[in-house]
Amino acid sequence: MxxxxxxxxxxxxxxxxxxxxxxxxxxxxxHLGTIRRRAGILLDREWxxxxxxxxxxxxxxxxxxxxxxxxxxxxxxxGYMPGLNPFFRYCIDIRVAPExxxxxxxxxxxxxxxxxxxxxxxxxxxxxTGGLRHFPHSRILVSxxxxxxxxxxxxxxxxxxxxWPTWFDPEPFAFSGPPVGPFxxxxxxxxxxxxxxxxxxxxMAGHVSILARSENLTYVLAGDLTYxxxxxxxxxxxxxxxxxxxxxxSQRAVKQLAQSEPTVxxxxxxxxxxxxxxSGVTMYPTAALAP
Length: 291
Ligand SMILES: [Zn+2]
What we know:
- The protein is α/β, with parallel strands linked by helices.
- The protein has helices spanning 23-26, 34-43, 86-90, 102-108, 126-129, 144-153, 229-233, 244-260, 273-279; strands spanning 10-21, 51-60, 63-67, 92-95, 116-120, 139-142, 171-172, 187-188, 195-199, 208-213, 218-223, 263-267.
- Strand 10 and strand 11 form a beta hairpin.
- The protein starts with 9 loop residues before the first strand and ends in a 12-residue tail after the last helix.
């Protein structure tokens, strides 16, 4: 595989319903540690208003890739989520219509689930794994660290393994690729080196971001590295992060990369992501590709 490659590619955002959460979930005061950040979410009474839950399809010459799977209409079924967990009970309100699930929307686009070459999971939080059941025939990649953490904590850290399909047995990302900007290593996902995973831990153990480099832009499919670009630019860290210092370091690494190449940030829940995707709005307007 070559590295640093660029390719023609097309990214489409697919909104699989909406989530609403307490404001302290998306941004929490810098001086608070992990426990107090989470207590702050539980005690908060202010809501953000509905935000999108995106999965992203990448059409690449080597095949179709999907980043995250969004959420599921089953969220409304009694007993689907752990009822005793106060976070799920009081702090989030997720609305997904059956036709908003990723499977139905791909079908409407003329894509069958078996057409997808790879499903790339930024992390395994419940609102990213809701659509997994639509992809029994696809190759699914998750960081080994994220999978281990999700299994170990069984629903207590926002990943709910009991909702995963019984056949779910993902492959680990192989971080044997070269450094990318401030990232010490990468996992190459296409032969031309234009799509790769980099490690952006903090929000959840083993969280990754997917870099997709088109001929003139770099897209960062950032999962929950941040909930919104303006929060990332202000060095605000979310309230559910497992490690605030690590989250901040990951956010700053993406900012560093974005200063050296024109970069469009596509988090999973940012209401402005589709506008930036459609118009090619970059994080730092002065960043340019080397001639
Ligand atoms: Zn998350």
